[in-house]
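Contributing new records

If you add data, match the layout below exactly. Sequence lines come first and carry their own label; structure lines follow with theirs. Keep one chain per record. Anything else will be rejected by the validation script.
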Amino acid sequence: MAISDVEKLARLFLDGNHAEAMRFIKQQPNQSRMVLFRDLFTPAMYFIGELWENNEISVADEHLATGVCDFVLSRLFRVSEEKMSGNNKAMFMCLQGEQHYLGIKMIKSLFEERDWETKYYGASLPLEYALKSALQWKPEVIGLSVSIVYNLPVLKNYVRTLATLPHKPVILIGGRLAKKYDLEPYSNNQGIIINNLEQAEKWLDEYVEKRINA
């Protein structure tokens, strides 16, 4: 029985096969970031997560797969210096204690595709450093990722604190919990919940259009 493209990619990640994973992605007929993220990268990593939850793979296997996926994402969508000099700025991070960073890295890439200047802080960034960086750099948008239930009070603190910044950035909230839980109580009515990549892309396009019209 033939396996799906999603499972093929997941197996390449689990095998630690950087070159074949890259080749497989480049052979896809549609090279749109949104299509690749939505139809291959995200479901492949969810597939791997399910294998781990069912004890079919180890933590080491999951970490290896994440590393290969991260490598492919970084190599596939490199940002030129010309595209790092736009007027719009956005910074992205995972809350302290959060290690699942691939989703927010994909959203960062969607912003870069539209010529936003971005800063990406990866996993587990303490609030004090996030606040200091935002004060200095003054991004229009701050993206937060939360995947662990016991970090919901932490999310509330991040949103409340970052919302006090003088330049009033838009705060986007996403991650695995965005699909499973109502995060509105933790947003303090000061953050925008992003449930998936499609919603992130839609919000971004609408935001840019409003700025142009303004």
